[in-house]
Design a protein that fits this description.
Blueprint (H helix, E strand, L loop, with lengths): L1 H13 L8 E4 L7 E7 L6 E6 L9 H10 L7 E5 L4 E5 L14 H19 L15 H19 L5 H5 L1 H11 L4 E3 L8 E4 L2 E4 L6 E3 L1 H9 L8 H15 L5 H25 L8 H13 L5 H13 L1
Antiparallel strand pairs: 1-2, 2-3, 3-5, 4-5, 6-9, 7-8
Helix pairs in contact: 3-8, 4-6, 4-9, 7-9, 9-10, 10-11
């Protein structure tokens, strides 16, 4: 169904006969309810076809958010054609090289791309949507709590096989959600990590931004600094924060920054647990102990440490 919808939309967009061969090559790991392919056909430059379902409500936000970010001069792929009735978008091909592919390179090689990504994040901080712009529901206490429940369900109980009752009842988690949810709100990407930053023309280009909403900017910064896929050592984290300070002329307040990192890492571990259980994609498994270790670091000495430490040790030991 997804491939048929993309193929029909491609033929309509290019106005080509059904007898003309069109190749659809699956790319990426995909995400919930989305099919992403590279489209090639004679006489045309390759481009990307995306089909999404209503499995995740934010999937429908991809086209309007893409147009909004393009207008704001954020580096995103141009939409070439869209068929919202069939939930299909045809977009510019940015290539396959993402920031994660440079993991084994020196920080100096990666630094220009981090600067590009963070400079755009700073620009987003000052960008406002139109009054009628329909973004996703904002990060409030309820959404932060949902992320925590996601962590309890899919990581603590699903992946570790532990009982999360005590964690659900612990007031410290709800207090964290309440604090973050009552804070100042600005637009955030929501999944600002190395696999969602493609590299082209010496710059970083954003993808998978359909979850964008109002929230705390520190959440995005923490997503990049405490990225389990990259596993930055402490000195590199400091260099990333130095880079951010050079761009924004400010540095995240440490307590809020680490609370946002805690929240983000719980969300990531919940996602890893769900992907491993439901999709069986073992590529994610080595990132579980990394994320657990990082979560242990950012919650050390906080009210969450006593609740999380035994579980995180279990995850790190495999």
């Amino acid at each position: 169904m997804a491939a048929d919808s993309i193929l029909t939309t491609v033929r309509q967009h290019l106005d080509i006969d059904p007898t003309v061969p069109v190749s659809l090559e699956p790319i990426g790991r995909g995400a919930s309810g989305r099919t992403i392919v590279r489209v090639t056909t004679a006489g045309h430059e390759p481009f990307i076809g995306i089909h999404w379902t209503d499995e995740r409500p934010d999937n429908d936000q991809f086209p309007p958010v893409a147009h909004f970010l393009k207008k704001a001069r954020i580096n995103v792929a141009s939409i070439l054609h869209e068929n919202l009735k069939w939930r299909v978008a045809l977009v510019e091909d940015l290539g396959d090289t993402d920031l994660h592919s440079l993991k084994d390179q020196s920080f100096e090689i990666r630094k220009p791309y981090y600067r590009s990504a963070l400079a755009q994040l700073d620009k987003l901080f000052f960008t406002r949507g139109a009054k009628d712009q329909d973004f996703n529901p904002p990060f409030d206490a309820g959404l932060y709590r949902w992320e925590q429940e996601y962590f309890f369900d899919h990581f603590v109980e699903g992946l570790l096989g532990a009982d999360a009752t005590e964690l659900r009842q612990a007031p410290e988690f709800q207090d964290l959600a309440d604090r973050l949810g009552s804070s100042a709100r600005h637009l955030v990407h929501r999944d600002f990590q190395s696999q969602n930053l493609l590299l082209k023309d010496g710059k970083a280009w954003w993808i998978d931004f359909q979850g964008m909403r109002l929230g705390r900017q520190e959440y995005d910064i923490a997503s990049l600094v405490f990225d389990p896929y990259m596993d930055h050592p402490p000195d590199e984290r400091e260099r990333l924060l130095d880079l951010w300070e050079d761009i924004a002329e400010d540095r995240p307040e440490p307590t809020i920054f680490h609370e946002c990192a805690s929240q983000r890492l719980m969300q990531a571990l919940g996602a890893f647990g769900r992907i491993l259980a439901e999709r069986g994609d073992e590529w994610y498994r080595p990132h579980v102990p990394v994320a657990a270790r990082l979560l242990g670091e950012v919650t050390a000495g906080t009210p969450l440490e006593g609740h999380l430490a035994p579980l995180l040790v279990q995850a790190m030991e495999g």
